[in-house]
TrEMBL record:
Gene3D superfamilies assigned: Periplasmic binding protein-like II
InterPro entries linked: Solute-binding_3/MltF_N
PANTHER family assigned: ARGININE-BINDING EXTRACELLULAR PROTEIN ARTP, MEMBRANE-BOUND LYTIC MUREIN TRANSGLYCOSYLASE F
Transmembrane annotation, as ranges: none
Keyword set, alphabetical order: Signal
Similarity comment: Belongs to the bacterial solute-binding protein 3 family.
Domain of life: Bacteria
Signal sequence coordinates: 1-22
The protein's name in its UniProt record: Extracellular solute-binding protein family 3
Domain Solute-binding protein family 3/N-terminal stretches: 61-290
Length: 305
């Protein structure tokens, strides 16, 4: 019997309450167990690197911008419909613990994090931010994940593979505004138009449930975005499949104000939890095993360099 469609945003709280497990590339995701925080001990080396007199947005607290969207496994509401969980909040907690600070998560729209970081409203941002040449001119970065992109379609789609520009000609593709995947999609479209191929139609949807419904109803042809998000949905619902990866790989990084001195202790904190195992616990339980880093690096080469 065909499984009824329930938008992801509405489905997750019910699944969390029921303790449902979802298959993923490394095993099973226990949605109920994943609400339990993973903590790290205070890291004296990281604490000692915080600049003397550094002014946090709130004294004694690490204020972290995280996604306001429901984008599992990166960020999603728990079954109380108010607590933010996911791999990004988990990473934020490990950093705060390591620095001996209280954690404050602030759900933030993608377009708002740059100003929030620049003005000191947030100490750091963890919103699946990829390192790019342009962003490095304004912010500092400490890597914590490999960023891969994926094309996903509904299971019954006629699309078998997307490997290059010609494969997206004439398609309607969901993509995030102002993202690296949008840049790739628009560049591929430019190449197609120059060859006389049908244009691609970028579809900008900010609500996750609406995006899922659009894809499964056939109103759009494909989703192009973070592989971790696409893979999680495919494992959770069994209604979509990956048909290709993006042409570039980048670093996802914790983001701070440029030159304020906070990025070194953050990188040290990340390397501490990488070595002690809490970092692996986080990525493993959210199905991101294939996006782990072995070491956090400050300001690595970014896209466009």
């Amino acid at each position: 019997m065909k499984r009824p469609f329930i938008p992801t945003l509405l489905l997750l709280p019910a699944l969390l309450s029921a303790g449902v497990q979802a298959e993923n590339t490394v095993g099973r995701i226990d949605l109920n167990a994943n609400q339990l925080p993973i903590h790290a001990p205070r890291n004296p080396q990281a604490v000692s690197q915080i600049p003397a007199g550094f002014r946090f947005a709130t004294p004694g607290t690490l204020t972290v911008a995280v996604s306001t969207l429901s984008s599992p496994p990166l960020s999603v509401l728990a079954d109380d419909n108010k607590t933010r969980i996911g791999s990004d909040p988990d990473i934020a907690r490990l950093i705060a613990d390591s620095l001996g600070l209280t954690l404050k998560l602030v759900p933030t729209a993608w377009e708002d994090w740059p100003l929030g970081i620049a003005t000191g409203r947030y100490d750091i941002a963890i919103i699946n931010i990829a390192v790019t040449k342009a962003r490095k001119e304004r912010f500092d970065f400490a890597t914590y994940r490999i960023d891969t992109l994926g094309f996903y379609v509904k299971n019954s789609s006629h699309i078998k593979a997307i490997r290059g520009p010609e494969d997206i000609a004439g398609l309607k593709v969901i993509v995030g505004s102002g993202t690296n995947q949008e840049n790739i999609l628009l560049e591929w479209d430019r190449q197609n138009r120059a060859r006389g191929l049908p244009p691609v139609a970028p579809i900008y949807v900010t609500d996750d449930a609406a995006a899922t419904l659009s894809l499964l109803s056939g109103r759009v042809d494909a989703f192009f975005g973070p592989h971790s998000i696409g893979a999680y949905k495919a494992a959770l619902t069994g209604q979509t499949r990956m048909v290709g990866r993006g042409p570039t790989t980048a670093w996802v990084a914790v983001t701070t104000q440029k030159g304020n001195g906070l990025i070194e202790p953050i990188s040290t904190a990340l390397n501490g939890v990488i070595q002690s195992g809490q970092y692996a616990q986080v990525l493993d339980r959210w199905g991101e095993n294939d996006e782990k880093v072995t070491r956090s690096v400050v300001n690595p080469p970014g896209l466009g360099e």
